[in-house]
Amino acid sequence: MTTLVSLASRQKKKNFVFITKKGMIKKSETNLYNIKRGKTMKAIKLKEGDEVVNVMLMDEGEVGILSNSGCFVKISIDDITPIGKVAMGVKAIALKEDEYVIDAKEIKSTDNYLITLSKNGIIKKTSIEDFAIANRATRGKKISGVRENDNIVKMLTIEKDCDIIIIVNKRSIKISTTEIPEQSRAATGVKGIDLTDNEMALDVVVSSGE
Which partner for 156 in 20, 37, 83, 115 could form a disulfide, CB atoms 3.0-4.6 Å apart? Predict the structure, then answer.
């Protein structure tokens, strides 16, 4: 399972936006997905070996897409033509043979910061303005500097400082983003959590108390 979407939320937004592991993006109008309770429906056509990474409910705006190599691209969906349910979509990010998409997020007009998390628990806060809107089907730029034997695993966009939760394979910790200094795109960040030899950071989310 990739994403759960509330039917009430669907009625407030015009489009479903799908991002796949192989870097495809598809925009389809929500009114195409009128499905009866208990029934199933094919929502997107996928290439062999591809899978959906995220599904977002949006009107128009921007999305950020992150690859396993740490390349990040911010693109506008405004010029992407809505297509049918079983269509495949178009290329969103250019990927090398060994690269794939690991995360994708809507970037709201009110978002000011991009939070990145590495597998070794390094966290960073960068102004969203450090990332210009790029053309679709480009590789983008490195989302962050990384230390030796480390790589970025997740990202998060926020409007203002808040409490976030860093999720590790065995536990989690809540911290405030006020404790994270704002740094440039090229900086590596600061330690967000101390990890043992068998631990790895997996995700970062906004605390539900926000």
Answer: 115
Nearest to 155 by CA among 182, 115, 126: 115
List pLDDT tens digits, range 109-131: 999 999 999 999 999 999 999 99
Q: What is the pLDDT of residues 11-64, one digit of tens each?
A: 678 999 999 999 999 999 988 887 777 777 788 899 999 999 999 999 999 999
64, exposed or middle or buried, with CB in 10 Å at 0-12, 13-18, 19+? buried
pTM of the model: 0.91
Going from N- to C-terminal start, the domains of the chain cover: 1-34+41-108, 110-210
Q: What angle do CA 124, 127, 129 make, to 5 degrees?
A: 145
Selected from 2.130.10.120, 2.70.70.10, 2.40.10.120, 2.120.10.90, the CATH number assigned to the domain covering 1-34+41-108 reads 2.120.10.90
Q: Contact, 4 vs 59, CB < 8 A?
A: no
